[in-house]
Amino acid sequence: MQEKPKAPAGRADSKAKPASGKGETSAAVKSTEAADTVIKLSHPDKLLWPQEKISKQGLLDHYALVWPRMHQFVVDRPLSLVRAPDGVDGQRFFQKHASAGMHEKIARMKDPTDGEEILFIRDFDGVAALVQLGVVEIHIWGCTIDELDKPDQIIFDLDPDEGVDVKAVRAAALEIHGRLDALSLPNFVKTSGGKGYHVVVPLKPSADWDEVKDFAHDFARALEQAAPDRYTATLSKKARTGKIFVDYLRNGRGSTTVAPYSSRAKKGATASMPAIWAEVEAGLAPNAFPIGDKTTLKQLAKADPWADFFKQGKPLKRG
To answer: How many domains does the chain have?
Structure first.
């Protein structure tokens, strides 16, 4: 894959500042050390979201603010990257392997199953290196690099067809919440940053990918069978007309989903933000949290809704 941006200009100690200069919101960050990085951004004022005036530095500021909450979901996990070196209005491409100019803080390993290269990060320097490359979305596997064949989460990505009302998507998320509760499976919700919600189940790593994907597929099909006018478990455009696609395909080995707190390459410069179910019930929109916006900063001043995500994980049992 061709590399558009130049290699980083070198190392320098820098500290990201809270987005929009609103220093009072830094109370949401437990430690200012999280913002330290050896990565020097080239062209920090370059606008990655031109209409929203969000620059590379603004994106790094966002990650500095959320890092105490975000790190457990992105450190030591296989990554896939959406890059837009010239901003989201320019060319975007998906990247899974290393390329020229990639900083050493973006680590690499070989997948022992097929020998494919895997990218991962170990710390905040890794996120800063991603920002330097013009990464506008960080996608994760549902496992760690130490347990590549044992997922530690199940993801249900609600993807509505054009024209489906957001109230219907919200109702779908709440229905999934209720069904998972009935199965005694802990479940969490985050905004997608786009049109839908992501419902995520933490797991104690025990089941393999096939078992997890089969469970997710069966769950999605049960929703479809109960309300075929509202849901589909089929990917095709034709099957999705006027419905919500319950995307279970994120649960296969090598498949990815956007990380909690990641920015989205979408209008509005939104982030995929963890929330609590009561907020969804109260009408929280899927695109409610633009980077650096007061709504986002207010959300980050609240208690971390996903702090105990992995602690609540259970082994997946079938039958």
So the answer is: 1
